[in-house]
Design a protein that fits this description.
Layout (H helix, E strand, L loop, with lengths): L3 E6 L4 E14 L2 E6 L5 E5 L2 E7 L4 E6 L2 E6 L2 E6 L2 E2 L6 H16 L4 H26 L4
Parallel strand pairs: 1-8
Antiparallel strand pairs: 1-2, 2-3, 2-5, 4-7, 5-6, 6-9, 7-8
Amino acid sequence: MRTFHLEILTPEKPYFTGECVSVVLPASDGMIGVLAGHSPLVAAVSDGRVVYTAEDGTVGVCAVTRGMFRVSSDRVRVLCESAIAPEDIDVEKERLALQEAEMEMRKKLSYEEYVASQLAFAKAINRLKVKQYSAMHTNL
C-alpha cells in the first residue's frame, strides 16, 4: 500500500509526524480525503476533526482549529492553531467553556468581543464532537 508523509503542526509543537495511507481533513467547503499520489492542493483548515490512518493500520484522530494544509504527491502538511487528542479533552471543562461563550454572545458586546465568543463556542463544540466521535469508534 502506498504511503505519504503526514505532518500535523501547531505553533507550540508538532502533533503528529509519520507515514500514513490516508487522512481526512476539515476544509472550509467540507471534508477532504487524501491518499498517496493525490493532486497538489492548498486549502484552509476549518475547526473540525482530522482522522488519519498510519502505515501500520493505526487510526488516529484529533480536534484541530483553523489553519491551512498543503498536499503534494508524497506529503501532507497541516498547519493549525491547535491540535488535541481525544484523551486530552476534558468534557466538563469544554461544557463550561461552551456555556460561558454562549452567555457572552447574549450580552451586548463589541463586534470583536462577539467574534471572540463565537470562536470560543465553536472550539468547545468541536472538541466535544471529537471526544464523542472517538468514544463511538473505540479503536481510536
